[in-house]
Amino acid sequence: MKQYNAIKKKYPDALLLFRVGDFYETFGEDAIKTARILNIVLTKRGNGSEQETALAGFPHHSLNTYLPKLVKAGERVAICDQLEDPKMTKKIVKRGVTELVTPGVALSDEVLQSKSNNFLCAIHFGKRDHGIAFLDVSTGEFLTAEGSLEYLDKLLQNFGPSEVLVPKNKKKEFLKTFGEEYHSFYLEDWVFKKDYAYETLNNHFNTNSLKGFGVEELQEGIVASGAVLYYLGETQHHKLEHITGISRIAEEEYVWMDRFTTRNLELYHSTAANAVTLLDVIDKTTSPMGGRMLKRWLALPLKNVQKIENRHRVVNYLIKHSEDLRKIQQHVKQISDLERLISKVATGKVNPREIVQLKNSLEAIVPVKSLASGAEEEALKILGDNLHSCEMLRNKIKETLFEDAPVNILKGKSIAEGFSAELDELRNIAFSGKDYLDEMLKRESAATGITSLKIASNNVFGYYIEVRNSHKDKVPENWIRKQTLVNAERYITEELKEYEAKILGAEEKILQLEQEIFQKLVLWISDYIQPVQQNAQVIGQLDCLCSFAEHAMTENYCKPEIEDSHELVIRNGRHPVIEKQLPASETYVANDVFLDREEQQIIMITGPNMSGKSAILRQTALIVLLAQMGSFVPAEEVKMGIVDKIFTRVGASDNISMGESTFMVEMNETASILNNLSDRSLVLLDEIGRGTSTYDGISIAWAITEYLHEHPARAKTLFATHYHELNDMSETFGRIKNYNVSVKELKDNVLFLRKLVAGGSEHSFGIHVAKMAGMPKQVLHRANKILKKLEESHGMQENTEVLKKSAEEEMQLSFFNLDDPILEDIKDEILHIDIDTLTPVEALMKLNEIKRMLAGKSQKARA
Predict the structure, then answer these.
(1) What are phi and psi for residue 843, nearest 5 degrees?
(2) Cys-Cys with 631: which of 187, 626, 746, 806 at CB 3.0–4.6 Å?
(3) How far apart are the first and last CA of the chain?
(4) Is 196 left (phi over 0), alpha (psi -120 to 50) or beta?
(5) Which string of DSSP letters, residue by residue, matches 631-674?
(6) pLDDT tens, 1-24?
(7) CB neighbours of 554 closer than 8 A, spacing ≥ 6?
């Protein structure tokens, strides 16, 4: 316990798994936590004594089962192992922490998700700009950037790190800015120092400067990157050869989307339970590398026309040569997670079976390389040429390991036959001893002329040769007598002694030799880290492009034309997610959108709720986004100039936990849009101003639209609103055009046609929507009455008077009107009377009946 307490003191904020014999034990508070998370038995040690302590543990071979559960619960876990063989010491066995596993530093397959990165992130708060770094230890990807807190917030949303490192003195600032949704760990402030960071990075990469990586100027970003590497050292991760470089997240290369836009468009997260995201719909990748890369492409759409068109051309080629597409997909399906396999090689945590998987994956790359390199499309050819066939590496693994090598090297049978003569000989001795002894028996029988020789063994002498007394005189002099029996003598020979020693030591030596050979192989493979990582990158890209091609073929997408204009022309565009969610009997209503900076800069879309205004807004953004990712798009035709920023303000999202109302959130988001406009921005505003009173809302919406129209950037804008007053703006402002989502009015119902047509809509259909939602009839009836009165009058003062008067008139009735069963009965009674066939006597009887019902009601009321 003294030893345990000394080690625990070094890792106060981690669960300490303390190896004792065949078990990992936890004590005290750690044990209580562990038992709760793992649902295992909590016991006590030293029951009733002063030293009584809680205890919970599990067998050491179950570590891979239990460790992921602890890490997923957000715990940091220190694994304390025995550092020497208990047989070799008479004192307490030396123990020490061999690894600290945290949510952001995990290499175990059980913790990681194959199609998502597991990023460890560090944030450095600078004076003006702030730095951020992301590292996925399991793949070796290391990225850094710097910028405003808003930019860091967007990157955090995009990369979704599993753990964030923050300086202790900035804890409050971090929580205030980024909220409490991230697993954060607070490091000492001295870790976030410039000189220390430069030194740490240069030492790791073995460089004199970071210019070669293009990050030398990012001082704040480098400080954050240094903190990430420091933390890996602290968590006992010292073998990091797979982290071969660090790259800058070049803000200027990608479409700017603030965090609200990423969330509003539901690209890869959704606030609603079971909602389908864009990623769910478009992801047809078949490899883990492709899955991770697609997510990255979606978070960071391109602005470089050349790069976008290269992707489009490859997708186009694959659609036209669907046979090649199928073949490439079949081979890519055979490729395991190359990035994570080679990272395991670098960190020394790889097993024989995974090395065989690595070899098989590299073999599956060979046909992919020949298909891509042989293509007529230049961009695809380049991808093919960038793939390494790694022939030497594949051959080396093939000749070293058995194809069905086990997971555990200690199980033996990992190293292939014929690789090591010594190993083959040892195996021969250990597993085919009978043949050797038979051979020896034949030889000795022939040499001595004793036909009845016998070779056997017992626990006392080991192996011996038994000779019947009748042949005693033929025994050679160099045989040593060991035992005399009644009818026979037993001897041993030098050869037999040597053979016995060989057999006893063979199995032990086999294991030792297999481990040595395997370690050498792993070391040898680590020279191939970079080519394998490059292969993983290229296969990821190919997989994404194949996914685009397949999706375009099945969903009838078209190739967008990227032009050097500021126009956005969409013909029969569809929403990629909604069209997949519709029942089979319904088809999605496609719509055209045209925006430019000269004629039609702002489209004002009016129309009732539920008519599909938001869908048109979102689909416009998603089409632009898909096009700039390199994908085909859900439309008949798209021509567009590059968009450099996409802003959305869609739907009301309260941020009550941060003390902000719906309206405050809405105004924050809109302010962020208006302060960051550019001439290539796409702005989508949905129901701005509805969080406040009608007239306030109309005024704000009007002012915002006017600002967008008069701003020199002339940003392309779609504005959905149900304030019909805004339709008047088109008369004053030339580039504002009115459109509405058409509806068909039936006698007492309304049919949503979801088609965008020119012109503003006259009135809203809110009451119809309320009816469809199943609102009580009295409420609908009352709402219609008020609406009529309001439509007859104008002006706010008048409206208020009308509402007041109307309310007073209805007061008496409404007090006992609401849901009164007797009045309902009377009403039904009157409505069902057929006056044409009613006789005077029947009329009197009916009247009497109604009077009785009312009398009964008033008696009840008096009572």
Answers:
(1) -65, -40
(2) 626
(3) 80
(4) alpha
(5) --BSSSEEEEE---EEEEE-S---BGGGTB-HHHHHHHHHHHHH
(6) 888 888 888 888 889 999 988 889
(7) none
Give the pLDDT score at 797. Answer: 47
504: nearest Cα among 430, 578, 592: 430
Listed residue (83, 28, 73) closest to 51, CA to CA: 28
What is the C-alpha separation between 54 and 68, in angstroms, rounded? Answer: 22
Q: How far, in Å, CA of 837 to CA of 647, rounded?
A: 68
Adjacent-strand bridge partners of 186: 166
Half-sphere exposure of 137 (CA within 13 A, CB side): 30
Whether 740 contacts 607, CB under 8 Å: yes
SS3 at position 745: strand
Separation of alpha carbons 646 and 298, rounded Å: 13
Give CA separation, 752 vs 608, 756, 769, 784, in Å: 9, 11, 10, 20
Query: What residue type is assigned to position 674 of the chain?
Result: L
The residue that leads in pLDDT, 449 or 394, is: 394
| Torsion of Cα atoms, 743 then 746 then 747 then 749, to 10° | -60
* CA 559 to each of CA 308, 316, 382, 629: distance values in angstroms, whole numbers, following the listed order: 11, 8, 21, 12
Residues 689 and 700 sit within 8 Å (Cβ to Cβ): yes
List the one residue out of 751, 708, 719 whose CA is nearest residue 593: 719
In angstroms, what CA-CA distances link 389 with 145, 384, 386, 532? 33, 10, 10, 9
142-155 pLDDT, tens per residue?
999 999 998 999 89
Domains, in order of start, for the chain: 2-101 (3.40.1170.10), 120-249 (3.30.420.110), 280-416+525-554 (1.10.1420.10), 421-520 (1.10.1420.10), 556-772 (3.40.50.300), 777-862 (no CATH)
Which residue's structure tokens are 């006017």?
706
Structure tokens at 388: 């390494």
Q: What does the alpha-carbon distance between residue 85 and residue 94 come to, in Å, rounded to a whole number?
A: 9
